[in-house]
Design a protein that fits this description.
- By secondary structure, this protein is of the alpha/beta class.
- It is 37% helix and 18% strand.
- It contains nine helices and ten strands.
- The strands form four sheets. Strands 1-2-4-3 form a four-stranded mixed beta sheet. Strands 5-6 form a two-stranded antiparallel sheet.
- α6 packs across α8.
């Protein structure tokens, strides 16, 4: 497993300030599949307010959502804080976010099992939803109730299909049934959002 070159130094910076940081999402997924990285997604137990104390050049525009953008050693990345999310009133954004310290609780809010694998600076993986098995078997599977995941954000329908196509994976039966049943929710979204998602490779 080859980790991004910047990750050890970034870990040292966070550790020096008393925090942990992990690779997650598409970054950890693509590392484990040994395919080129497109994005750099990381997660931490530090809140945006705490990160302001040692990330001088970061972009905190979306700090209220727990999201910080950073350029570190020439790499652009998104760093999010462990969090829990409330209901999604607009089919896209949670009505309330609570920052937490628990990695497993954070993992439960994510979309697919293969995107909820955490990797630390030593290459140790943390997998609470059998994402490693789904990676091995080429399966796209929602975390928890697929209907709930889709009702939170219908764009996840297109994301599931995009990942299946790009990775050559299949969508598991329960997830596919939910997708077929709830596809009409896409009509409630801004057409530009659908267009942007559809353009992603």
């Amino acid at each position: 497993m080859e980790l991004p070159s910047f990750f050890e130094k970034l870990h040292e910076l966070f550790a020096k300030n008393g925090f942990e940081i992990y690779l997650v999402g598409g970054t950890s997924r693509d590392i484990l599949l040994d395919i080129p990285l497109r994005d750099f997604d990381l997660v931490t137990d530090a809140t945006p307010e705490q990160m302001k104390g040692f990330l001088d050049n970061a972009d905190f525009t979306f700090a209220r959502f727990g999201s910080v953008k950073l350029v570190f050693e020439g790499y652009k990345m998104d760093i999010t804080t462990f969090r829990q999310e409330d209901s999604y009133g607009d089919f896209r954004h949670p009505s309330k976010i609570v920052f937490i310290k628990d990695m497993e609780m954070d993992s439960s809010r994510r979309d697919f099992t293969i995107n909820a694998i955490y990797i630390d600076h030593n290459g140790k993986t943390y997998d609470f939803h059998n994402g490693l098995d789904d990676l091995k078997n080429g399966i796209i599977r929602f975390i928890g109730d697929p209907r709930m995941r889709i009702s939170e954000d219908p764009l996840r329908i297109l994301r599931a299909e995009r990942f299946a196509k790009r990775l050559g994976f299949s969508i598991d039966k329960e997830s596919q049934e939910a997708i077929d049943e709830m596809r009409g929710l896409l009509e409630k979204l801004n057409p530009e959002k659908i267009k942007m998602e559809s353009k992603k490779g």
